[in-house]
Amino acid sequence: MTRARISFTAAERRLLHAEAERSGRSISALIRDAVNHMYGPSRNTDTDMSAIAAAFGAWSERVDDGETTVDQLRSGARLERSTTR
To answer: Which residues of the chain have pLDDT under 70?
Structure first.
């Protein structure tokens, strides 16, 4: 691995520190992931289309529609608010 010295604004440093605390990962790991995500190899359209084709019909045997499923997953006040509007 190669070391690099970079500078951040105070706001950028706070963002990185907060995410490191939240995720339990090092700031270096967060930066490496960001660089790979932004500048690394891009996704392949054929791979994306294959994933979409494989997922097609995944819910075809479910009896409930999407709205019913979401309502069952919601709880408490959120469900009550959505049904009273």
So the answer is: 76-85
